[in-house]
């Protein structure tokens, strides 16, 4: 069997399966430290397994094989997530920068450049129109529909008021 001969391929397929069946649903951002811990635990377990399975017990070879296998699983998750967000996500049809469709880090870098997020949003609206996708789920509308008087008591003065389409 090819999967048993190549554990990296098996872990890549497992990463894809994990993303498609579990990680696609819900918010997993808060669990990132736990995922790092899981990946390190899996790596350590693989080092031990590869060390015990190898005929001349070589620790460096076992560590390299475990690293390759662990990163294959992580690559499977990232590849599956990227393909889903670019081609299969329900907001695929909305225009916006490619980086914004793949990750929310894009908006963070835009905000971190000069701390004037609204200027970057104005440039995006000038380039893409009234509806702009700025992350994996949020969209920004330049001029939202008039829904009557604002019920909010606290209003912050903004040059470009931003509202998301999805809650």
User: Helix fraction?
Assistant: 55-70%
Oligomer: single chain
Distance from N terminus to C terminus (CA atoms, Å) equals 47 Å
The residue-averaged pLDDT reads 77
Radius of gyration: 22 Å
Tertiary shape: elongated
Percent in strands: under 5%
Number of domains: 2
Largest sheet strand order: 1-2-3
Strand pairing plus helix content: what structural class?
A: mainly alpha
| Poorly predicted runs of 5 or more residues | 150-158
Report the total helices. Answer: 7
How would you portray this structure in words?
There is one protein chain. The protein is mainly alpha-helical and 167 residues long. The protein has 2 domains: 2-88, no CATH class; 98-143 and 153-164, no CATH class. Helix content is 60%, strand content 5%. It is built from 7 helices and 3 strands, in the order αααααααβββ. The protein has helices at residues 2-5, 7-23, 32-53, 59-88, 98-102, 105-114, 117-128; strands at 131-133, 139-141, 163-164. It has a 3-stranded antiparallel β-sheet, covered by helices on one side. α3 (32-53) crosses α4 (59-88).
Structural descriptors:
mainly alpha; 7 helices; 167 residues; three-stranded antiparallel beta sheet; 5% strand
